[in-house]
Write a structure and sequence with these properties.
With 234 residues, the protein is α+β, with helices and mostly antiparallel strands. The protein has helices at residues 2-21, 27-41, 62-68, 72-90, 130-133, and strands spanning 43-46, 49-51, 55-60, 92-93, 99-104, 113-118, 126-127, 138-141, 144-147, 152-156, 163-164, 175-180, 183-188, 195-197, 200-202, 204-207, 212-215, 218-223. Pfam families: FHA, FhaA_N. This is DUF3662 and FHA domain-containing protein.
Amino acid sequence: MLDRFEKGVERAVSSAFAKAFRSEVQPVEIASALRRELDDRAAVLARGRTLVPNSFTVELAPSDHGKLASWQDTLADELVAAVTQHAEKQRYAFVGPVQVGFHQADDLRTGVCRVRSATVKGRVAPATGDAVSAGRPRLDVDGRRYVLTETTTVLGRGSDADIVLDDPGVSRRHAEIRVSPHGAQLVDLGSTNGTSVDGERVRAADLFDGSVITLGHTQAVFRAARRSADETWD
């Protein structure tokens, strides 16, 4: 018994020493922080239905952010899987896809991370950091960034739209953005109030970096993808 006690003390001291002098955030610590965020933000809506956030930003100190930069995409995928698995185990519900991104926070010291979360409705979740925005075109709407991961993305007021716009001047299925290796195009889907690109009303128009799309009272800015020469499209 004494031997087990001494070993327990040794493990506790070693763990405390490691935490006091650790020099970087470990992936397992980020996963634990995300699970805690789910538990802390869980909201019971009805019997058997508990809603939790689905969009997460992991804020890291500059040194930690730099070390993770080369494999953020892979880590983000693993963290999404960890969040989803925890939600299934706890019987939590999401209103949209789970997405994890990373952001540099200059006020954090090395070895410390901070998680910010949001509940985002729709099939296309907003980009929350560097990892999810690289290499794909996106749409900036009212301060939110939506990564266009599909070849066709529908914008509208209806819940079945990929990007849901809370605007009475927008039709349920107002317009769609089509992305291909040759560029991007906006197509109006027969909306009631029409669609404009850079101030000109259009039925269809090519989109370029910085193009301003107007739907109802909502303005969205298209940002073109920056792709390397060897990148391929799905």
